[in-house]
From TrEMBL:
InterPro entries tied to this protein: Mtu_PIN, PIN-like_dom_sf, PIN_dom, VapC_family
UniProt keyword list: Hydrolase, Magnesium, Metal-binding, Nuclease, Toxin, Toxin-antitoxin system
Protein name, as recorded: Ribonuclease VapC
Cofactor(s) in the UniProt record: Mg(2+)
């Protein structure tokens, strides 16, 4: 089971995204194995892709939401509710600066759901999350 981060969701739905082809190829090969969104990734996708300044988006959050809903109708989709807390000292023995907190939260959510966070981001230090190294899936070329 894979939790797609915001950039993965955008890359799937934006045909002009620099990683669109690579991400779509991955998605087509893996989505039937199970994939997920959560409140944070849904919110981030709708906020960014639906913003009027996003160059290839619809400039409308309602349209962005409909596109995401259509994607979530694909086989293998599961919604993961927020079920972890940054205040859990067993899960997060230490915390980085605030720039990476959301990424680490998503990684911990993937661990909680016995899945993996799939991302294009190579800068996440998975060691901040108990079990994070095994659940951190970087999509490479």
């Amino acid at each position: 089971m894979y939790l797609l981060d915001v950039n993965m969701l955008i890359a799937v739905l934006d045909p002009h995204h620099e990683h669109h082809d690579k991400v779509v190829d991955w998605f087509l090969a893996k989505h039937r194995d199970g994939w997920a969104t959560c409140p944070l990734t849904e919110n981030g996708f709708i906020r960014i892709f639906g913003h009027r300044n996003y160059p290839n988006g619809p400039a409308d959050t309602l349209v962005a939401r409909r596109l995401l809903m259509r994607l979530c109708a694909e086989p293998g989709y599961v919604f993961w509710p927020d079920s972890v807390s940054l205040m859990d000292e067993q899960r997060f023995k230490r915390l980085p600066d605030s720039k990476h907190l959301t990424d680490l939260y998503l990684l911990a959510l993937a661990v909680e759901n016995k899945g993996s966070l799939v991302t294009l981001d190579r800068r996440i230090d998975a060691s901040y999350v108990a079990g994070g190294e095994k659940a951190y899936a970087i999509l490479t070329a």
